[in-house]
Design goal:
- The protein has a domain of 121 residues.
- It contains eight helices and no strands.
- The chain is flat, with a radius of gyration of 18 Å.
């Protein structure tokens, strides 16, 4: 294998690999609602703070992984690959999966024993608005390249309204977004 495939464009030094792994490890523990809910901070870290990717590269990484079949977390691997080749994939994916998987296993075992606890039910109910807020922040970051365009904002607002006020399938706003994109409106 070539050096570029293993380590990407060669912009990372030894300490960067550890920082990449540790940052994604910390984000893993904050990923309420899935890894996509931490995309705004991933963007802040790899685009704004470190400058390893551009806004367009970050958005394309998320879009490519979301379009591909498979688990939702695949976008983390694509970001890692674009930052540092296969070593970047290892750093971001291991950092994302190891802590959250361990925590989920421990929490599930504990929840099995204490499932009827009033405090546990209140905690899980309280996570819903947190998840919605994190997903809204993710949408805001992913709309960055098109933010000045009113059509994108209107489409997001309409999709949110449909999801909150109707029992329609989420595929309808998704199809509307795809159609608007195909027609060049957004």
């Amino acid at each position: 294998m070539t050096h570029a495939l293993l380590f990407g464009p060669g912009i990372l030094v030894a300490g960067d690999w550890l920082n990449l792994f540790l940052h994604f490890t910390a984000l893993s523990l904050l990923a309420v609602g899935g890894a996509i809910s931490t995309a705004p901070d991933m963007h802040r870290f790899v685009v704004v703070q470190q400058g390893w990717l551009s806004d367009a590269q970050f958005g394309a990484s998320v879009a490519l992984a979301q379009a591909a079949p498979g688990p939702n977390v695949l976008f983390v691997a694509v970001i890692g690959f674009n930052v540092g080749g296969l070593a970047g994939v290892a750093a971001t994916l291991t950092g994302t999966l190891l802590p959250s998987t361990t925590l989920a296993l421990l929490a599930t075992c504990w929840g099995e024993r204490h499932g009827q606890s009033r405090a546990l039910r209140a905690f899980t109910t309280g996570l819903a608005p947190l998840t919605i807020g994190l997903l809204a922040a993710t949408s805001w970051i992913l709309l960055e390249p098109t933010r000045p365009e009113w059509a994108s904002a209107a489409l997001v607002a309409l999709s949110l309204w449909v999801m909150l006020r109707t029992s329609w399938t989420p595929l309808l706003p998704l199809a509307a977004g795809a159609l608007a994109g195909a027609l060049g409106w957004v």
